[in-house]
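Reminder: ligand-aware prediction takes two inputs, not one.
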Amino acid sequence: MAGEMSGPSKEAIAIMTRVLHRQTGHSYPVAAGGQGITIRDAAGKDYIDASSGAAVSCVGHSHPDVLAAMREQLDRLAYAHTSFFTTEVAEALADDLVAHAPPGIGHVFFVSGGSEAIEAALKLARQYFVERGEPQRRYIIARRQSYHGITLGALAIGGREWQRKQFAPLLIEAHHVSPVYEYRDRRADETAQAYGERLAREVERKIEELGGKNVIAFVAETVVGATLGAVPAVPGYFQRVRDICDRHGVLLILDEVMCGMGRTGTLHACEQEGVSPDLMALAKGLGGGYAPIGALMMQDKIFDAIAGGSGAFQHSHTYMGHPLACAAALAVQRVMRRDNLLANVRSQGAHLARRLKERFGNHPFVGDVRGRGLFQGVELVADRGSKEPFDSKLKLHARVKREAMARGLLVYPMGGSADGVRGDHILLAPPFIIDAPGIDTIVERLGEAIDGATAQTQ
Ligand SMILES: Cc1ncc(COP(=O)(O)O)c(C=O)c1O
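Here is what comes back for the chain with pyridoxal-5'-phosphate:
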């Protein structure tokens, strides 16, 4: 096999790449296969996918029922442009999503990912007011330390300063208020309720400052994912925000791209907040990693304004409602229901939270463990008492990722939690099919990875 002998080794392929990867100069292992909660690289090393990539692979890898549904769709029809046709599978997925949606949501607009869902949300919200004869509404309010995607509109409303900075001249005007970040920002003399009230009032003050009749929408992740590390709001916050938005005629857009589709133990994270958004962005777990798909769900009043007005949302993509992606997403939904996976998210989520608290409750460099369901975050601090973050130059989050991968564990660490620049956290989001021994192994390997990474900083 002379050809093979002279060709690059599988490991070397990652270095001799023509791909502009996320980081140049970094050698990525080659993912060669996936089964259940595990990804295997080309060198034969197994990794437990404890973050489902970025909270994507919710039913695990190579699920036979999802693959079968996709093959069946491929055999029937791979693609038909949406300006000519609808497809059975897109209609069936829309029916399925609407049947399980929060109250008042009756239609869905399909896209191919989270950023596209957010872009569509911003434009649909704006067009809604134009159709209603309120063209003066032009402002979007969102929160600091949030992530809504990487395209220009999504980046503009996102609150990750380091990521926006160089693109600032290209970004639309957006206004930001405080995130709900109880671990760092609730005052010692304040109840969680009072803290939530204070932050909701901040939203209202911002609306008033911009002029209630000039604001299009308030956008928030129901549970903040990548930027803060699985941080839920305090009780009552979203209900107060909902009331405030209603009082000013402002739309509430919830970004459930990461925290939605079962991740927190209910299909939609907002179910646990007791609110129904005007627009809700979904992606990641919707297709479970089997195909790129996102969705924007909308209240009837928004659909009706378009249908009774111009009759067309001025926004479309070539691949929207792709039949293969819809087939994958529909199969993921059916597997989740048939196998009662939301119950597993709740029970294994409770087990994960318990095990993390046992392992890190007294850890000198862990300040907080928080989250909901199989969406848990661990925040690292240099000093537990003062909550002082590690020096951002140490890039502790990246060290933890490396140490975890060396131990056959995939987690999703990130920097900037404390103030947009400093602060490190690790996001855990295992597939919904995880069992208790799987959780135990994750926590054990994570403990070793954190110990290994923090030891390098001392
Ligand atoms: C909350 C949230 N919104 C939007 C996005 C953007 O999604 P995508 O990367 O699919 O464009 C992400 C991605 O991480 C996200 O976490």
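The first strand starts at residue 31 and ends at 35. The chain has a mean pLDDT of 95. We will return to this case in the review session.
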